[in-house]
Amino acid sequence: MQNKGHEAERRAENFLQRHKLRLLERNYRCRFGEIDLIMQEGDTLVFVEVRMRTSHFYGGAAASITAAKQTKLIQTARHYLSRHEADQPCRFDAILISGNQEIEWIQNAFDEH
């Protein structure tokens, strides 16, 4: 399972790089959680959650980014920003990879709440 997760993250990274985003960090971890990819698009920091689902049962990949997961991602992003003294626009994107390997990129997937 872990290999599939890493493979999905690499596919997402390559996809985003083809769309002119630059990788800053993979699998940023702190006590709050983990962010799969941190990318740069122009002057905007992009925190990316990668989700792969082989079926659409239980709502598929998008439904797996729950409110609790969003809270953890926001806390982890704040930690990253404080460690890097970053003061620039940010957004949270999601890369969803389906069972047939199609990639869906949701920009601004959610906001801070």
Automatic annotation (TrEMBL):
> What SUPFAM superfamilies does the record tag this protein with?
Restriction endonuclease-like
- InterPro entries in the record, alphabetically? Restrct_endonuc-II-like, tRNA_endonuc-like_dom_sf, UPF0102_YraN-like
Record keywords: Endonuclease, Hydrolase, Nuclease
One Gene Ontology term of the molecular function aspect: nucleic acid binding
Gene3D superfamilies in UniProt: 3.40.1350.10
HAMAP family for the chain: UPF0102 (MF_00048)
Task: Please give the family membership noted in the entry.
Answer: Belongs to the UPF0102 family.
NCBIfam families named in the record: PRK12497.1-3 (NF009150), YraN family protein (TIGR00252)
Q: What is this protein called?
A: UPF0102 protein SAMN05421881_103218
